[in-house]
Model the fold of this input.
Amino acid sequence: MMIAQMQAILELRNVVKDFPSHRAVDDISLTLEAGRFYSLLGASGCGKTTTLRLIAGFEKPTSGEILLNGTRVNDVPPYRRNVSTVFQSYALFPHLTVEKNIAFGLEQRGERSFSGKVEQAIEMVRLSGKSKRLPAELSGGEKQRVALARSLVLEPSILLLDEPLAALDLKLRREMRAELKAMQQRTGITFLFVTHDQEEALAMSDEIAIMHRGKIEQTGPPREVYRKPATRFVAGFLGAMNWIGDAGVRPEALRIARNGSEYRSTARVEQSLFLGNAVHVLLKLESGESATAELTGAEADFRTGELVHVNWSSADEMRFPR
Amino acid sequence: MKQLRFWMLAPARVWMALFFAAPLLIVVAYSLLTRGDYGGVEQPTTLENFTRLFDPLYGAILLRSLVIAIVATAFCLLLGFPMALFISRSGRRKNLYLQLVTLPFWTSFLVRTYAWLFLLRDTGLINTLLIKAGIVSSPLPLLYNNGAVLLGLVYGYLPFMVLPLYATIERMEPALLEAAADLGARPFAALRRVTLPLALPGMFAGSVLVFIPCMGAYLTPDLLGGGKTVMAGNLIQNQFTTARDWPFGSAVSLMLMAINMLLLLPMMRRSEDVL
Done:
């Protein structure tokens, strides 16, 4: 998926960030191209937020280089970087109205007539009619959209989003996902979205970088990182994974039958969980290992205690150097 | 629940009634009576004590108090804001600095004001050093003027400005300043557009806390003004002691309260929950 002729908007070269107590970012290199949706995915404490803060300029790298549009920005303060951040807490100015929050950046740039731009931004995030409200008078989803508009109105080279959906309830979170993706496509601005939620990352991104202990484990399009994880960590982190011997097999790749002629293991059904669109069958293999099979369709009716044959194709086995 | 509430509040109610409401009523009553020959009050009731307040002599004293209190409050704001900002950004040393701010309270205000006397007088530390260093040939008039009174007031009440200011600045979400920088605001612009407006409640609260005691100050003008800078507090004290005119003293007290309330009520409304 690398498109060579596209210009790199952002490049991290061997970036390290040390804090007094630990190394938060450990030698990461990353190239972002214009107009795409990127996710930085990892568990809390993996260094993804620090990476974002390095790009925004709130932290300085201990070593390595950050290049924005080809220029080294290691020592450029945040207010002179053409990147913008949507904070997890939104960080809206509580004493300013929606309108004035959105105009803040344009004013700081010394732009004279920005009311048109502000109005457009308010319309884009569907907050017309609420432009005179204070942040305290808005719902969580509305605050979120003000934060987005406040950043997007500046047309930054990159929009950094720090777990912006974390504070929203599940339903709103799903809606915002589609909205964010649509907004990225409409504006053509490069998004770098930091999240610990793999579903979010998989659903929205053109490309995902998976971080673990300050390092980037793998970068690639969602399908690729899911189907061809580069490391054992990625395989276990993304989606569910059965570890059978030294191979990983996804639950949806396991097939079970009462009396299949070809099978790799017998297993005892421990539990059968009906999930609506699928059934999860929890198995105890003859090797003593546990595994889960995800079955879709009507054949998926197994009882607890039943003895079954389990099969999978070698093509679905994932192997990693230990 | 309601009963508990009643009994819990009862001691405070009794206290306020006995030691605030009742004395205030007495002051109001005195202000409407005639002075006794050896202090105290006598019949008949009169409004003369209040009309006397419009005598230019007393008007000047009230005006001087007002100006000195306003200037002292302004200086406290100018000094206190950077201090509060500095403390809120001092990480682990915050508590140490806060303790240093409140350190003067460990000794009596009287003693501390006397200490200024020893620093500022003609043979005091500052003048002695200046003369020895050859910077001046005769001692500078540092004491017994408006400047000395102002200095004493700012010194004495600065902590009352710093603490509420610190409380509001500390309450501010740190991400707001990052957001400001992120949106292109240089540090000074962020200070002006974000920190300053958000610290307004603290400024109002601090101003109220500094202005009121400055308006009523009598110890500082007495010691550092040396009787030359008479403020409302000195006038009141004088009426109750040497002048033996309790009714007029009461009238001045009420006038002082009225001025304070008139000036500060709008501020107290805007100080939100800091006060």
About this structure: The radius of gyration of chain A is 23 Å. The mean pLDDT of chain A is 90. Chain A is about 25% helix and 30% strand. Chain A touches chain B through 24 residues (CB under 8 Å).
